[in-house]
Amino acid sequence: MGDGVAFASMGDRIALDGAVALPQQNGRSTTLSLSGCEKPVPVIGMGTMSYPPVDIETTKAAILEAMRAGYRHFDTAFAYGSEKPLGEAIAEALRVGLIQSRDELFITTKLWSSFADPAQVVPACRMSLQNLQLEYVDMYLIHQPVRLTEMISRTPVAAEIIRPLDVKGVWEGMEECKNLGLTKGIGVSNFSCKKMEELLSIAKIPPALNQVEMNPVWQQKQLREFCKARGVHITAYSPLGANNTKWGDNRIVESDVLADIAKAKGKTTAQVALRWAYEQGVSIVTKSFNKQRMRENLQIFDWALSTNDLEKINQLLQRKGVTLASILGPHDLFLELDAEV
Ligand SMILES: NC(=O)C1=CN([C@@H]2O[C@H](COP(=O)(O)OP(=O)(O)OC[C@H]3O[C@@H](n4cnc5c(N)ncnc54)[C@H](OP(=O)(O)O)[C@@H]3O)[C@@H](O)[C@H]2O)C=CC1
Ligand SMILES: O=C[C@H](O)[C@@H](O)[C@@H](O)[C@H](O)C(=O)O
């Protein structure tokens, strides 16, 4: 097995939510096919949101290192400021022959809440494509189920700029992005069952996926059941609990239960958390800009958790970590949305 190249050995026994396992796609990483998206998604994606924030060169260098390690799936957002360095990294990867074609990559970006207005969706998508130096992305997501009437440069946001999301109008814009070929697939992020219900009742093109916080200490059982029944795939973000970030904590990396399982298997606690997510049938976006840890995080495909391990993980105390209120401020609408599952 090459450096950082991950192969599936258990893909066929895993119950997949809205997806089918395709082991060894391009000989690189296990992929899942999504309904409503032409290209399969590599199970493990590299997150590009850093805390504390880092400069463009650091992000670009980390992305190139991730490509060398075998990553082909990258998660960005207009709000992260990482679209430009990702675009530069892709251009350089092509120039130096690290990848042969842009088609080898699965690129996700997100519509920021300040553009979550029907008339602004297509222009915002075009702006992201310009940042990325790409003609299309593979997945375009509504970042959050809220509308902000102004661009923000700091948080907490001012109460006067917060509005409920016009789900129908904004989703029509997302559908137009897909119809125009600006993106291969469309989906959402941070949508509860209630918001999904509202969206599914009006969507002409159903969302391919919902990207949400998911990890052993916030397992999202109800939302996953809901989405599975409707063929909507889940992508897990903050699968390691976003340790050492403003929006996360150390409940996973410091979990004794996960550490004991890891020790018995000769794995790390992070690998146990990632393997657990994989065994739930979801794709995963996790961030590491560290050369060793980004490789460690790919090594989850040639071993499995036992029924006993899974039972112990099932019993972990559950608490949502990432909330709109903690990121954008404790306003009523955010608190209401955070309370939905
Ligand atoms: N749609 C949304 O609203 C959201 C989307 N996301 C996306 O998901 C991505 C990942 O989520 P994120 O919140 O960053 O959280 P993660 O759970 O991926 O945790 C990232 C943190 O864990 C550290 N880390 C990475 N690998 C290991 C390891 N093997 N052992 C110990 N520590 C490790 C990283 O540090 P280091 O780099 O030093 O290794 C970083 O501090 C984001 O980058 C973003 O793309 C995240 C939040 C919200
Ligand atoms: O200013 C707000 C931020 O961009 C925030 O909403 C996002 O960064 C979110 O936490 C994410 O990581 O996707």
Automatic annotation (TrEMBL):
<dbReference type="Pfam" id="PF00248">
    <property type="entry name" value="Aldo_ket_red"/>
</dbReference>
<dbReference type="GO" id="GO:0016616">
    <property type="term" value="F:oxidoreductase activity, acting on the CH-OH group of donors, NAD or NADP as acceptor"/>
</dbReference>
<dbReference type="InterPro" id="IPR018170">
    <property type="entry name" value="Aldo/ket_reductase_CS"/>
</dbReference>
<dbReference type="InterPro" id="IPR020471">
    <property type="entry name" value="AKR"/>
</dbReference>
<feature type="active site" description="Proton donor">
    <location>
        <position position="80"/>
    </location>
</feature>
<keyword id="KW-0560">Oxidoreductase</keyword>
<feature type="domain" description="NADP-dependent oxidoreductase">
    <location>
        <begin position="44"/>
        <end position="317"/>
    </location>
</feature>
<dbReference type="InterPro" id="IPR023210">
    <property type="entry name" value="NADP_OxRdtase_dom"/>
</dbReference>
<feature type="binding site">
    <location>
        <position position="143"/>
    </location>
    <ligand>
        <name>substrate</name>
    </ligand>
</feature>
<dbReference type="InterPro" id="IPR044497">
    <property type="entry name" value="AKR4A/B"/>
</dbReference>
<dbReference type="GO" id="GO:0044550">
    <property type="term" value="P:secondary metabolite biosynthetic process"/>
</dbReference>
<feature type="site" description="Lowers pKa of active site Tyr">
    <location>
        <position position="110"/>
    </location>
</feature>
<dbReference type="InterPro" id="IPR036812">
    <property type="entry name" value="NAD(P)_OxRdtase_dom_sf"/>
</dbReference>
<protein>
    <submittedName>
        <fullName>D-galacturonate reductase</fullName>
    </submittedName>
</protein>
